[in-house]
Amino acid sequence: MAQIFEVHPDNPQPRLLKQAVALLQKGEVLAVPTDSSYALVCHLDDKAAADKMRRIRGVDDKHHLTLLCRDLSELANFARVDNRQFRLIKSVTPGPYTFILEASKEVPRRVSHPTRKTIGLRVPDHKALQELLALHGAPLLATTLIPPGESEPLNDAAEIRARFEHQIAAVLDAGACAMAPTTVVDLSEEEPQILREGRGDLAALGL
Questions:
Q1: Around Cβ 71, how many Cβ atoms within 10 Å?
Q2: pLDDT tens readout for residues 25-52
Q3: DSSP letter string, 71-100
Q4: Can you give the pTM of this predicted structure?
Q5: Residue 83 lies in a domain
Q6: Pairing relationship of beta strands 97-103 and 118-122 according to DSSP bridges
């Protein structure tokens, strides 16, 4: 049965976050809160965990997975970002936006898009998740926690545990999240394209 780590949203307990990190390093999949909805996360370099995460979501390798990064400098290590793209990303980061960018060599090819070689990247504005990323010491591979066949993300830790207790190792419970996924912006082409309108305000992008 999946564990629940109840952490304070503003002052998350390091002891509990370290237990979550230990599970990630063992190749487990966790559900974590973000500044949009809950997300499934796993270790970037663990192929089996990434495959399991896709199975839980019911998506194939053409579905963009996202790297959750601590800050813009970490994001720039995993994507090719020019000055124009960087300015746009910086203007709304951290926040509920996912940017599709050309993956750098630091990203395993098996987790980038199979033909476009792109990856989703974002810097979340959520204290508990930021602390988890800091303790983990690297970006986490993630996907919005939308159950197969459904259109809305989940935001209640108890419901997530009940529905996925045999598929994930733990739920990081810092209280309910928003019920909206991120706004997704494709920056891999010449002109930015909005792929999904979510919690991130389009006006803030100036597009």
A1: 13
A2: 999 999 999 999 999 999 999 999 999 9
A3: SHHHHHHHEE--HHHHHHHHHT-SSSEEEE
A4: 0.94
A5: yes
A6: antiparallel
What's the number of domains the chain is made of? 1
- Prior bond of 94 cis (ω within 30°): yes
Mean local confidence (pLDDT), 121-129: 96
Confirm whether 204 is domain-assigned. Answer: no
Q: Which of 37-46, 64-73, 79-88, 102-111 has the lowest mean pLDDT?
A: 102-111
The token pair at 111 is 């987790």
Residue 9, Cβ neighbours under 10 Å: how many? 13
Check residue 179 and give its pLDDT. 82
Domain harbouring 84, CATH code? 3.90.870.10
- On whether residue 206 sits in a domain, the answer given is no
CA distance 99 to 105: 17
Residue 17 included in any domain: yes
